[in-house]
Model the fold of this input.
Amino acid sequence: MDEIKDRESLCIKVSKTQGEKMLGLIQEIGIANRKLRIQNDASSIYIPLSRQPNEKENAAMRVQSLGFVLETRTFYEKSTNKTLKSVLDKQLQPSLLASLPRALDIIGDIAIIEIPSELRQQERRIGKAILESHRSVQTVLAKAGAVSGTHRLREFTLIAGEQKTNTLHKEYGCTYMVDVAKAYFSPRLSQEHKRVASLVQSGETIVDLFAGIGPFSILIARARIDVKVYSVDINPEAIRLLETNARLNRVENRVFPILGDATKIVEGKLAGIADRVIMNLPERATKFVEAACRAIKPPGGIVHFYSFVRRPETIEELQRQFCERVEETGRKVDKFLSVKVIRETAPYE
Done:
């Protein structure tokens, strides 16, 4: 369906320099009209709204943004995009159609999908359908194994589009060079990256023990100009990409990539310097609790600890195990500031 310029809507007019910040805020509040296309001119962005913001929402926007106005404007409706299921509707039998994955990961212009065994013979057809239903995608990769190894890598099979594994990915105003075959990255953690970055205070020193290509480190450094982030990873390709991403996002003066094993790096360079430690290695994080405790300043600090919980194990049992590991280092957990499920990785996990 072609776009039709026939819809009037209340909108926010904001300067281009504040547009991305304002868009993120109104999407978080939940008043963005996703059916209409954002407009712009030489100096301003016009963001359509689904309703009039209330007094509290107005106040929040005024605190976060350097000036905006509400006005009514005519917008284009967004075109109706095809879905993967609609593209394949007449190409697959109903039983196979029912087995189509409900979600896929899009990293830059690369789509990654997990093909069930019953659809393996149809994977090329599915790949082409993804290109048709997602116009920004240039490459479709199928998962060909689980994440494994010290570097947390996965094998992929090209099922459609351009033969490549590297791309530019954007997330909350940051641009990342990603190579999915050489360094771990998950777009499903984007909200967690933002959540942690929002908690960091001015002047903090952060140790990101398993930094990968830098989604925690760089977003933190973009949010706070007076922090120091020491970003550790054992994968040389991840560090190479992290160095590139620090330059791309102009934070190389506050993000310091370090190649090596987290335990050895902390012992040699980072002992007792951190206000905050990030431990995004859920499959093996418990083995590095001692390194995190060594990195935290003697008076104390905050640790963001991630781990898998497999039922019937509970989060409470994981908390108890974490406390025990911390006490083995001669330190103690004062309190848990937040305990939450980030996402499911498999049934019962």
